Amino acid sequence: MDAIEAIRGRRSIRRFRNRPVSRDLIEEIIRDAASAPYSFVSLPQPWLFAVVQGRDRIARYGEIAKSYARDHRPQVKNYEWADRPDFSVFHGAPALLIICGREGNPEGRGECERAGQNVALSAHARGLGSCWVGSPNLWLGDPATRAELDIPNGFIPHVVCVLGYPAHRPDPPPPTSRASSGPGATARWSLDSPQGRRSGWASAPFAGRWESGSGHPPPPSACAICPLAGNSAPSRSS
Ligand SMILES: Cc1cc2nc3c(=O)[nH]c(=O)nc-3n(C[C@H](O)[C@H](O)[C@H](O)COP(=O)(O)O)c2cc1C
To answer: Is the Cβ atom of 119 under 6 angstroms away from ligand 1?
Structure first.
């Protein structure tokens, strides 16, 4: 599987086969995680990857995390899941990866999130499924939890991913599912073309259509530069 297939085909997996994930495979995934780009202001050795294996043990932790959330949630809003008997924190996974960042690192959370994205892509490319789970975060903030999981002082858990062999295969998301709505999915192109500099806003993933309205520059007319924009291109020269 190439990188593009991994990026576009990855989905969250929430049902797993009853098959353990080998230590070697998890180590390869950690190596992939640690290949993420990093900032020069970050501290060296920014991560601690805490690995938990064993379906039963992980399920037990999930129940504890849920009960902890019920008892300690700051408000019920956003924590309704903790009241749902059918809600599974770790989805029956046989392996759990908790990515912890070094305390005092200005890039601590970012390092872990970039590593987490690599975990999801690497797992998918290697035939595993993963799901990034935020629901255990409250429980992970408890020092007793960190002691139980052997996470040393000086490290903060930022990202939790479950891993395992998938027992279902969700379809890839439609290409425009999130990208076609909201300002977060627009891209502003400023292009040098034979006609001069042009600029405009495009709706990702640029299916030959440029956004107009909502305060954005007028729709482009012909694009000599961006093949993804098809025949639509910026109309504004500047
Ligand atoms: C920060 C974060 C927290 C998440 N927390 C949970 C969670 O607690 N439980 C869960 O089942 N999925 C969780 N997810 C997975 C998202 O629900 C999922 O990525 C999203 O619905 C998009 O689906 P996809 O990953 O299949 O593309 C989380 C994802 C992120 C990035």
So the answer is: no
What pLDDT digit, counting tens, does each position of 177-232 carry? 565 555 445 666 666 767 776 666 554 443 333 333 333 343 344 333 333 333 33
The matching CATH number, chosen from 3.30.70.141, 2.40.110.10, 2.40.50.140, 3.40.109.10, for 3-175+188-226 is: 3.40.109.10
Position 42: which residue type?
S
Residue nearest to atom 3 of ligand 1 (CA): 134
pTM of the complete model: 0.83
- 85 C-alpha to center of ligand 1: Å? 19
The closest alpha carbon to 103, from 41, 36, 47, 143, belongs to 47
Helices 23-33/108-125 angle, 10° precision: 130
Closest residue by Cα to atom 18, ligand 1, is: 12
Q: Is 14 in the pocket of ligand 1 (CB under 6 A)?
A: yes
Q: Is the distance from the beta carbon of residue 121 to the nearest atom of ligand 1 less than 6 Å? A: no
CA distance 133 to 93: 12
- Which residue, judged by its Cα, is nearest atom 20 of ligand 1? 12
Q: What is the pLDDT of residues 82-121, one digit of tens each?
A: 999 999 999 999 999 999 999 999 999 999 999 999 999 9
